[in-house]
Amino acid sequence: MKRFLTTTLLASLMAVPALADDLESRAAASREASGKLLKALKAEVEKAVQTGGPLHAVSVCNEKAPQITRQVSLQAGWDVGRTSLKHRNPKNAPDAWEQKVLEDFERRKAAGESLKTMEHYAVVEEQGKEHFRYMKAIPLFGVCVNCHGSKIRPDLSEKIYKLYPDDKARGYNPGDLRGALTVTQPM
Ligand code: HEC
User: Fold this and answer.
1) What are phi and psi of 30, to 5 degrees?
2) Can you say whether the dihedral through the CA atoms of 49, 54, 55, 59 is positive or negative?
3) Strand, coil or helix: what is 60?
4) pLDDT at residue 36 tops 90
5) Strand spans (E) along the chain
6) Helical (H) or strand (E) element with 78
């Protein structure tokens, strides 16, 4: 009886750090996969702006962003994507959990935390299934203002509205929280 108690006690004590390790390694893998997505998208946008200007780059974003997002997800074996409280592509609209985390990111930013390292992860139960979910803040930079700022060139603005009639991703300034990378892994 005593040995049984000791073993179960030990097992339950060991389960806690094991779970924490598992979550930390899942977070590290999510960080890597979402970092890949951001890097690939940034490279694509920068190349397109340089070769054909922002007007051309909008078409590239429109065609390539969903394509690259699918590729990175397939490679990682999980859902990897982008979301925002003010999204351009309605397919990037946040679900209830993402909405809460994005609102929390805005609060954390207002409290003085840097967007550079801002992230959040948790095990979330949805429809009876557990998932590991991870989000990382995306800050807005100078070059992004071309297409997400408050003074978008008229021809560019028109083209964006043609592709995204319900576009909400405007009016941003450098340093704003533009959105977040989001990863969902099955447990
Ligand atoms: C040439 C125009 C252009 C530039 C420059 C640009 N974007 Fe975008 N952005 C778009 C388009 C178009 C979409 C919609 C892509 C899609 O259909 O998935 C988008 C979508 C996004 C999304 C996904 C959420 C949403 O609103 O649908 C994020 C996040 C984002 N952009 C961040 C940035 C950041 C950060 C930068 C600067 C590093 C940037 N963008 C620069 C045109 C641009």
Assistant:
1) -70, -40
2) positive
3) helix
4) yes
5) 79-83, 119-126, 129-139, 177-186
6) none
CA of 29 to the centre of ligand 1 (A): 24
Task: In whole angstroms, give the CA distance from residue 60 to residue 83.
Answer: 19
List Cα–Cα distances, 39 to 31, 65, 81, 118, 142, in angstroms: 12, 12, 13, 17, 16
| CA distance readout (Å), 3 to 11, 13, 14, 15 | 12, 15, 16, 18
Query: Which two structure tokens, joined as six digits, stand for 177?
Result: 């929280």
- The rounded distance, in Å, linking the Cα atoms of 18 and 10 is 12
pTM value is: 0.90
Domain residues of the chain, as ranges?
A: 2-186
Distance CA 181, CA 170 (A): 18
- Ligand 1 centroid to Cα of residue 82, in Å, is 9
pLDDT per residue as tens digits for the range 90-131: 999 999 999 999 999 999 999 999 999 999 999 999 889 999
Q: What is the percent of the chain where pLDDT is above 90?
A: 81
pLDDT in tens, 43-59: 999 899 899 999 999 99
pLDDT more than 70, % of the chain? 90
Mutate to test the pocket of ligand 1, among 37, 60, 61, 95 (most ligand atoms within 8 A of CB): 61
Among 7, 16, 10, 28, smallest CA distance to 185 is for: 28
